[in-house]
């Protein structure tokens, strides 16, 4: 709806066609023959009906000839939000999935991540992962980097230069018995985290924020966890980590901190559970722990590909939603072998169906529900839903223009008569999500972040 009481903003884009998004009330809402205007600041200025073109053009000062009309096979959807991805691990994604979590970390992850002290190597991998996730339709990503401050700052710069909205975390870990040279002293981790936060904030990136990142309980001492909680509180920062991913991990965490009743209590004790916290996995959380998540406002990132690929566990998403805990999806590269959020959507449905096979009374997640988890749910999990996640006036235009009939695309539409212009059916978005089997999805023809077109890469970018 138009905000007629405010000064008329200049329009950057005006589109007419079908828009699909999630709201608090509906997991999938279809706006047929809609008009959406994006102002010069990249924010959604109005959403109206196609029949209101003349009135809206007068109210918002644009010419009807400037409107971009979507074709009969196109629609806009919100950009997808990856709530958990390890940027350095992209260098070996799709390999090394033959070990359970803790042995996998020792054998593959820590040795690879230790290489990111080399900034040239870091620049190459971080450029690859940002470009790949953007091509896959990830407009917002919550990244783990490594313990190396300068390389972590470089990841933030690369994401900002390419126009991706991101949270970037310098990893903190003062315990690591398997790769001795890949850990910090407690004091160094605290000092470098402060330097990283200060430098990051001084860089004043419009799209990228720092996130305090203790790797997980098994790699951090109590004093470090406590200091990281204080740094996050004093600077009002996001927090990310892992929780209850693997049964062995849960057992060791409780042995390390016997004064805490649960894994969740450990983080809570050190002030690391806040309404700006996102914890990955949560496969073994009890109902009491989920209640604590709800009370503190902390979020979970569901990473179904990784949970299955490393044989870690299964998250009952229906139970998380029952407890009204904020929840998004994550690719968890490279525990998850795919950097595509479309894969995360499919695996979330697969996991839910697997639970239904074991427990027939379980209510399988619907397509519409996982669509919301990948978009609005992710923005809520990262406490960014006032900026992004769906199409509401005042939010940034983070969006994917999808053409299910794109040339050489992976979808074959067999129905004899296509839908009319402005009448794209829910089947279109279903085809796109579940039958687009390529990683670099050709059906995503344009990607916008804050109103700026970032895919195709038509503007000069940092390589």
UniProtKB/TrEMBL annotation:
Protein name as catalogued: Guanine deaminase
Q: Which organism is it from?
A: Anabas testudineus
Which is one Pfam family of this protein?
Answer: Amidohydro_1
- Record has Metal-binding as a keyword: yes
* Gene3D superfamilies, sorted: Metal-dependent hydrolases, Urease, subunit C, domain 1
Q: What is its EC number?
A: 3.5.4.3
Cofactor mode of binding and number, as noted: Binds 1 zinc ion per subunit.
Which PANTHER family does this chain map to?
GUANINE DEAMINASE
Homology family: Belongs to the metallo-dependent hydrolases superfamily. ATZ/TRZ family.
Q: Which gene encodes it?
A: GDA
């Amino acid at each position: 709806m138009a905000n007629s009481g405010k000064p008329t903003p200049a329009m950057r884009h005006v589109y007419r066609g079908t828009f699909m998004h999630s709201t608090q009330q509906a997991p999938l809402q279809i706006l047929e023959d809609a008009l959406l205007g994006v102002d010069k600041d990249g924010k959604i200025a109005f959403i109206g009906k196609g029949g209101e073109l003349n009135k809206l053009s007068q109210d918002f000062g644009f010419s009807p000839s400037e409107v971009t009309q979507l074709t009969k096979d196109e629609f806009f959807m919100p950009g997808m939000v990856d709530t958990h991805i390890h940027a350095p691990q992209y260098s070996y994604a799709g390999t090394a999935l033959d070990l359970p979590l803790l042995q996998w970390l020792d054998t593959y992850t820590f040795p690879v991540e230790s290489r990111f002290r080399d900034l040239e190597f870091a620049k190459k991998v971080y450029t690859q992962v940002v470009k790949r996730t953007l091509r896959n339709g990830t407009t917002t990503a919550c990244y783990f980097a490594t313990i190396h401050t300068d390389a972590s700052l470089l990841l933030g710069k690369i994401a900002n230069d390419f126009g991706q909205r991101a949270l970037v975390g310098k990893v903190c870990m003062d315990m690591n018995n398997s790769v001795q040279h890949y850990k910090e002293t407690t004091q160094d981790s605290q000092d470098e985290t402060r330097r990283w936060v200060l430098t990051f904030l001084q860089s004043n990136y419009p799209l990228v924020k720092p996130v305090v990142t203790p790797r997980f309980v098994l790699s951090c001492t109590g004093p470090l966890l406590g200091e990281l909680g204080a740094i996050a509180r004093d600077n009002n920062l996001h927090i990310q980590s892992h929780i209850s991913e693997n049964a062995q991990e849960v057992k060791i965490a409780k042995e390390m901190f016997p004064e805490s009743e649960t894994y969740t209590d450990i983080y809570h004790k050190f002030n690391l559970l806040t309404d700006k916290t996102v914890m990955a996995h949560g496969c073994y959380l009890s109902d009491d722990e989920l209640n604590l998540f709800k009370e503190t406002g902390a979020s979970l990132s569901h990473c179904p590909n990784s949970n299955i690929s490393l044989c870690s566990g299964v998250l009952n998403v229906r139970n998380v939603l029952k407890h009204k805990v904020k929840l998004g999806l994550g690719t968890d590269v490279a525990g998850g072998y795919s950097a595509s959020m479309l894969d995360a959507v499919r695996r979330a449905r697969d996991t839910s169906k697997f639970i239904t096979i074991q427990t027939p009374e379980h209510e399988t997640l619907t397509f519409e529900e996982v669509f919301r988890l990948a978009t609005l749910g992710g923005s809520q999990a990262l406490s960014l839903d006032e900026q992004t996640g769906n199409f509401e006036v005042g939010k940034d235009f983070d969006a994917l223009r999808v053409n299910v009939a794109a040339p050489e695309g992976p979808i074959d539409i067999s129905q004899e008569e296509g839908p009319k212009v402005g009448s794209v059916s829910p089947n279109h978005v279903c085809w796109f999500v579940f039958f687009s089997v390529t990683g670099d999805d050709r059906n995503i023809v344009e990607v916008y972040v804050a109103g700026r077109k970032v895919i195709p890469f038509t503007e000069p970018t940092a390589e």
